């Protein structure tokens, strides 16, 4: 390859698109490093504090697409205070100053302000795509800037963000000349929507393939929208309540029949189940169905709908479907690859919840299943062993038994053997979440068998430091380890400091690690940021005489090339 | 300084008070804790597995391991900040994104309220059921106060009545801890200020509902409030009067 001119090598590199592969080729030799960095257009930064904007721009000056993740995963469950960090503003400022030709920005768990969005919209002429997942800090005013200023906007995709809805007219801020939209997802907005502006926008967007509406868009508006966008591939229905004999419902039926490209359906945020039959004609084309927010769709209406969806690859559903419903899924959806079952009611079981039987049925009926997230009331080792036998292809396996520490409900044993069977059989397992009663034994299995495991979530599990040590020593590919309420302490934390250099991050909350343990770790590993998050006033760590032995409530550590961050709030102590 | 994501020790204190001294009918504590096998002592979080050791197993090895586990876990003691003791919930469990949790609670409250709007007794029962439902999940809403640039977040499901909510908000915004600038609290440190519905203290508590309208807090039954509230705002009385006129 050294005999080829740079342009040829660069052309070859154009075919290498995955981040992992690109990182690998940049390590081969200096010349490849140089060619690679000038030709890299898409950069993924899994932890925004692992580097900084200046370094990013120095290395990749031809950047077009940036993906940034901010807060640790457990922030999704309120375990991280809102002011912790993850601000996108400095990144946008630096990108704007450098005049890089940014076209795409994807953010997850970051704090985004209206100011940031305004700056973004004004700084990059060719900006095309904004995807915000689980972010917060902005309002519809920020969206108005994006709509108004991004002339070539293709994607505006807002997934499960907390957005202050000022009920402004952000939708009318899209100029009449804007005809390039491909994706428009505002399902998470809580306020009213200007239906006229929306309909006009959809009508002048011939490339629109993905449209996800919020609660405020009623059924008659949906009918009109669908009839002017029959090319739709991905639809999120807002409000779906109407009299099935009404004229608008008939119009909807007609419009739906024309949407022969529709492959993905979601939403039904407020739904009258008897209207679902309007969608039956296109169900046989669906590959993705997300009814996890459709609390009102269950029972026979739900089953009837699913029975039409023979090509389904991805299904997100509420546990009100029940084990019987999952059996229907198992017998109908033979192409199923990903299943997520969310709880619909957190108070107590009830007869609508799912159990281990539903999981076993799915594993038996869906041979292509590789990703599962399953919230349930109970589980047994026997069921997990069966699931492992039926589905050795799991890449992601997340099981959440709602009651912490719950054992096998038949034998009262811990669930070590069940999870052990999963990790032993599923050689490609990359992500695992544990729950139920678990001893150190499960971690022995994980360390022994889970060779490809990159992310592990542990809650209320284990007996001693040995558990955590098994994982740290055994899982060579571990990237993100997050632990809460488990009895792991300093011994495990400090056993192999160099391990953390190979990982993106470690989170430990309500465990047994002490302040002095964390201090020792920080001393041994200056290339780590060791953050202690301490919210309570009466636990002032500096003032307390016995500070060394004091237990740390929340520990978050991550490798970084840029040292201590400057934007940490007062309750975050970086050692 | 209290983080915003957990209703901090202030609300924990007010909930402690609620459990000891019931403030109203609607504030009856819910006894769901035993189902989980949680043994909760006030002010502490911790899982002791006394319930399992009692229930279950015939084999001696598992019961001894469960007992030794109980002692290990009982050894993990944390402050009331983790909220488990006072409201029967564990922070961040089950692991469901806040956005999804909020939409679940809204759906449940909405169903319960709309089932029967006539009977008073039904409403009471529903409210307690709503409370029971809400006990297991968080519902965080933003709270802003006129004159204070930084907003906070509060978990509405940590409260069962308006009085406890009001107490918490007063703690959060009107009683300064070390670290807050005194600039905002001049003149407020001497007399405890209350946020009263009649606005006689100069401040009034309002909320934005699902339709985007701003309403005075306290007018509707708690369960209905929970089902429609989107965010809270502590307004100066003069502003509130103006807004009220706009709504009317």
From TrEMBL, chain A:
- Cite the Pfam families for this sequence: F-box_5, LRR_6, Transp_inhibit
**Highest taxon listed in the record's lineage:** Eukaryota
Q: Which UniProt keywords apply?
A: Auxin signaling pathway
F-box domain segment(s) = 4-45
Q: Which residues form a coiled coil?
A: none
Stated name of the protein: Protein AUXIN SIGNALING F-BOX 2-like
From TrEMBL, chain B:
Family as reported in the entry's similarity comment: Belongs to the Aux/IAA family.
Q: Cite the Gene3D superfamilies for this sequence.
A: Phosphatidylinositol 3-kinase Catalytic Subunit, Chain A, domain 1 (3.10.20.90)
Q: Which InterPro entries match?
A: AUX/IAA_dom, AUX_IAA, PB1-like
Its assembly, as annotated, is: Homodimers and heterodimers.
- What keywords does the record list, in alphabetical order? Auxin signaling pathway, Nucleus, Repressor, Transcription, Transcription regulation
> Is this entry keyworded Nucleus?
yes
Q: Which purpose does this protein serve, as stated in its record?
A: Aux/IAA proteins are short-lived transcriptional factors that function as repressors of early auxin response genes at low auxin concentrations.
From the Swiss-Prot or TrEMBL record, give the protein name.
Auxin-responsive protein
Q: What is its main location?
A: nucleus
Membrane among keywords: no
Where found in the cell? Nucleus
Where does this protein come from, organism-wise? Camelina sativa (False flax)
User: Which stretches make up the PB1 domain?
Assistant: 138-237
């Amino acid at each position: 390859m050294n005999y080829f001119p740079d342009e040829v090598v660069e052309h070859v590199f154009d075919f290498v698109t995955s981040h992992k592969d690109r990182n690998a080729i940049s390590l081969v030799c200096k010349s490849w490093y140089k060619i690679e960095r000038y030709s890299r257009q898409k950069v993924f930064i899994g932890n925004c504090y692992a580097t900084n904007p200046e370094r990013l721009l120095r290395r990749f000056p031809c950047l077009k697409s940036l993906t940034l993740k901010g807060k640790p995963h457990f922030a999704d469950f309120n375990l991280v205070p809102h002011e912790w960090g993850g601000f996108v503003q400095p990144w946008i400022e630096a990108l704007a100053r450098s005049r890089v030709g940014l076209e795409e920005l994807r953010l997850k768990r970051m704090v985004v302000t209206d100011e940031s969005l305004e700056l973004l919209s004004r700084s990059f002429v060719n900006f095309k795509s904004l995807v915000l997942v689980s972010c917060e800090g902005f309002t519809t005013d920020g969206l108005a800037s994006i709509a108004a200023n991004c002339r070539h906007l293709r994607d505006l995709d807002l997934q499960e963000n907390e957005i202050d809805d000022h009920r402004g007219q952000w939708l009318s801020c899209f100029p009449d000349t804007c005809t390039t939209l491909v994706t428009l997802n505002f399902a998470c907005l809580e306020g009213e929507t200007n239906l006229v502006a929306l309909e006009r926008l959809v009508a002048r967007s011939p490339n629109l393939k993905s449209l996800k509406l919020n609660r405020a868009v009623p059924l008659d508006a949906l009918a009109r929208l669908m009839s002017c966008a029959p090319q739709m591939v991905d639809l999120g229905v807002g409000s779906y309540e109407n009299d099935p004999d009404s004229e608008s419902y008939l119009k909807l039926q007609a419009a739906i029949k024309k949407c022969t490209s529709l492959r993905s359906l979601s939403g039904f945020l407020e739904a009258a189940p008897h209207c679902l039959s309007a969608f039956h004609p296109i169900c046989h084309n669906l590959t993705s169905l997300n009814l996890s927010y459709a609390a009102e769709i269950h029972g026979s209406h739900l089953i009837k709908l699913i029975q039409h969806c023979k090509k389904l690859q991805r299904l997100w559903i509420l546990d009100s479907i029940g084990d019987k419903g999952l059996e229907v899924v198992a017998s109908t959806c033979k192409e199923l690859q990903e299943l997520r079952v969310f709880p619909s009611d957190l108070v107590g079981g009830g007869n609508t919840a799912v159990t281990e039987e539903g999981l076993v049925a799915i594993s038996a009926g869906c041979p292509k299943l590789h990703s599962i997230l399953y919230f349930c009331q109970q589980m047994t080792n026997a069921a997990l062993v069966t699931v492992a036998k039926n589905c050795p292809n799991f890449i992601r396996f997340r099981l959440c038994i709602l009651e912490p520490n719950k054992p096998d409900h038949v034998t009262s044993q811990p669930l070590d053997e069940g999870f052990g069977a999963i990790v032993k059989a599923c050689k490609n397992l990359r992500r695992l979440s544990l729950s139920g009663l678990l001893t150190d034994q499960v971690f022995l299995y994980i360390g022994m068998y889970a060779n490809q495991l990159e992310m592990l979530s542990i809650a209320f599990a284990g007996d001693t430091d040995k558990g955590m040590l098994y994982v740290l020593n055994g899982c060579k590919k571990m990237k993100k380890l997050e632990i809460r309420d488990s009895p792991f302490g300093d011994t495990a934390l400090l056993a192999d400091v160099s391990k953390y250099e190979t990982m993106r991050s470690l989170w430990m909350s309500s465990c047994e690690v002490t302040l002095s343990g964390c201090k020792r770790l920080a001393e041994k590993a200056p290339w780590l940021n060791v953050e202690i998050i301490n919210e309570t006033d009466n636990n002032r760590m500096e003032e307390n005489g016995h500070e060394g032995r004091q237990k740390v409530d929340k520990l978050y550590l991550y490798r970084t090339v840029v040292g201590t961050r400057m934007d940490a709030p007062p309750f975050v102590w970086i050692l | 300084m209290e983080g915003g994501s957990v209703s901090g020790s202030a609300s924990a204190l007010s909930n402690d008070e609620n459990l000891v001294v019931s403030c109203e009918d609607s504030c009856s504590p819910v006894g769901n804790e035993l189902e989980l096998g949680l043994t909760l002592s006030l002010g502490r979080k911790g899982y002791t597995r006394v319930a399992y050791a009692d229930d279950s197993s015939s084999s001696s090895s598992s019961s001894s391991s469960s007992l030794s586990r109980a002692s290990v876990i009982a050894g993990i003691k944390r402050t009331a900040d983790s909220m488990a003791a006072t409201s029967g919930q564990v922070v961040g469990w089950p692991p469901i994104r806040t956005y999804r949790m909020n939409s679940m609670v809204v759906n449940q409250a909405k169903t319960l309220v709309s089932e029967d709007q006539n009977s008073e007794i039904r409403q009471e029962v529903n409210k307690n059921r709503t409370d029971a439902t809400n006990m297991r999940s968080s519902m965080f809403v933003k709270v802003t106060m006129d004159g204070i640039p930084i907003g906070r977040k509060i978990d509405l499901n940590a409260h069962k009545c308006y009085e406890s909510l009001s107490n918490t908000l007063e703690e959060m915004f009107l009683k300064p801890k070390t670290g807050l600038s005194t600039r905002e609290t001049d003149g407020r440190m001497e007399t405890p200020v209350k946020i009263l519905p009649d606005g006689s203290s100069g401040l009034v508590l309002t909320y934005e509902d699902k339709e985007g309208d701003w309403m005075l807090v306290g007018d509707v039954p708690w369960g209905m409030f929970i089902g429609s509230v989107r965010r809270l705002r502590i307004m100066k009385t003069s502003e509130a009067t103006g807004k009220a006129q706009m709504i009317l």
